[in-house]
Design goal:
- With about 50 residues, the chain is an alpha+beta fold.
- The protein has one domain.
- It has two helices and three strands; from the N terminus they run E-H-H-E-E.
- It has a three-stranded mixed sheet with strand order 1-2-3.
- The longest helix has 9 residues.
- The termini are far apart.
Length: about 50
């Protein structure tokens, strides 16, 4: 799992998205404190009532 400071992530967002789509886990931090994890979007499966 890679960690990236939010300020740096803003500069390299496109590259981070590519990394996530290749299966890497990336956690965005602020002052070393984890804030969010970037994950690929998963479409809901079709089911009853949809």
């Amino acid at each position: 799992m890679n960690t990236v400071e939010v300020e740096e992530a803003a500069k390299i967002l496109e590259a981070l998205i590519e990394d996530v789509l290749r299966g890497e886990e990336i956690v965005l931090t602020q002052d070393g404190v984890p804030l969010v994890k970037l994950v690929p979007y998963e479409r809901p499966t079709e089911g009853p009532g949809r």
